[in-house]
Design brief:
- By secondary structure, the chain is mainly α.
- The protein has one domain.
- It is 91% helix and 0% strand.
- The protein contains 3 helices and no strands.
- It has helices at 2-49, 56-91, 96-127.
- Helix 1 runs parallel beside helix 3 (96-127) and helix 2 runs antiparallel to helix 3.
- The N and C termini lie far apart (75 Å).
- 27% of the residues are buried.
């Protein structure tokens, strides 16, 4: 009897862990996705207004540091979603949250790669 109660508790823990991983990936993926769109709008405005009064060396260092940080966060969010999918698959649990979290995190990572390339190209154009 004690063995059955232990199995139920372990199963409940896996369900909770899968949901937590999925929710974490979904929240961070959506947040990073929206932030990437805002970053793209910043790039457009920065391109059209030019570097008036902006110290370009500092902007370049800050831009590259920000790019590395956000790409790392996007990769961590994607890893969280993939880990949740793998855990849900092995335990036979629903994968709704983890699937959408992984998709949003992958979309955010792709968008941030585009925004990062755009920002570095803009900063290079203004630096020369």
């Amino acid at each position: 009897m004690d063995h059955i109660a232990h199995d139920d508790k372990a199963s409940e823990m896996v369900i909770r862990q899968t949901a937590e991983l999925g929710l974490a990936a979904l929240i961070s993926g959506v947040t990073l996705f929206v932030a990437a769109l805002i970053g793209l709008m910043f790039n457009v405005v920065f391109w059209y207004t030019g570097p008036v009064g902006v110290p370009m060396k500092l902007a370049y260092v800050g831009g590259v540091a920000g790019v590395v940080l956000v790409l790392g966060l996007s990769a961590a969010s994607l890893y969280t979603g993939v880990r949740g999918i793998r855990l849900a698959s092995t335990s036979g649990q629903p994968r709704g949250l983890t699937t959408w979290g992984t998709l949003m995190s992958a979309g955010a990572l792709v968008l941030w790669i585009i925004v990062s390339i755009d920002l570095v190209m803009i900063l290079n154009a203004f630096s020369s």
